[in-house]
Amino acid sequence: MGRGDLSKDEWARLKPHLPMNGRQGGRWTSHRRVVNGILYRARTGLPWRDPPARFGYDLTQHRPTQVTRELIDWADLVLAMDHAVLNRLRDIAGPDTVTEMRLYLDHDRDVPDPMGRPAAEFAACALLIEAGAALHLH
Fold first, then answer.
1. Predicted pLDDT at 47
2. Euclidean distance between CA atoms 7 and 59, whole angstroms
3. Contact residues for 19 (Cβ-Cβ < 8 A; gap 6+)
4. Are 40 and 52 in contact (CB under 8 A)?
């Protein structure tokens, strides 16, 4: 346990409020690890692209990619975080695309954008994204 990580008692109080992983495929990492990473980021001010690997996310090699019609045609499935992005992707793809495109979350829900919001909203968003991963990992 690192400095500033949740204690056993804190984790015991928080855990019942987190989403369960009810689908086959599992989560990318444990909820506790993600929450500790979010708390570390909030405490240190470290940019989101530079979290320590001990929190399960190594984004140092991540680079944004411009979405093109060719990239969409190459993909079997394109997941969008919200309706606005999904609509824009459909515009790029055109009416004759055969690529499946849908929202990341089930039940037609958007993933909220936590930028500029308190750390608690970042934590909730990260957990929502992790829970959604189980929908796509088989």
1. 62
2. 26
3. 127, 128, 131
4. yes
Closest to 19 (Cα-Cα) out of 81, 105, 82: 105
- Tokens at 116, concatenated: 């500029």
Q: Report the C-alpha gap between 61 and 58 in whole angstroms.
A: 7
Q: How many CB atoms lie within 10 A of CB 93?
A: 20
Query: Which distant-in-sequence residues (6+ apart) come within 8 Å of 112 by Cβ?
Result: 121, 124, 125, 128
pLDDT of residue 48: 57
In the DSSP assignment, the letter for residue 20 is P
Please say whether the beta carbons of 109 and 125 come within 8 A: no
Look up the pTM and report it. 0.56
Could you give phi then psi for residue 94, rounded to 5 degrees?
85, 170
How is residue 81 written in tokens? 């975080």
pLDDT digits (tens, 9 = 90+) for 16-70: 777 665 444 444 467 777 777 777 767 776 665 555 555 555 556 667 788 999 9
Structure tokens at 51: 């979290």
- Kindly state the tokens that stand for 97: 């695309």
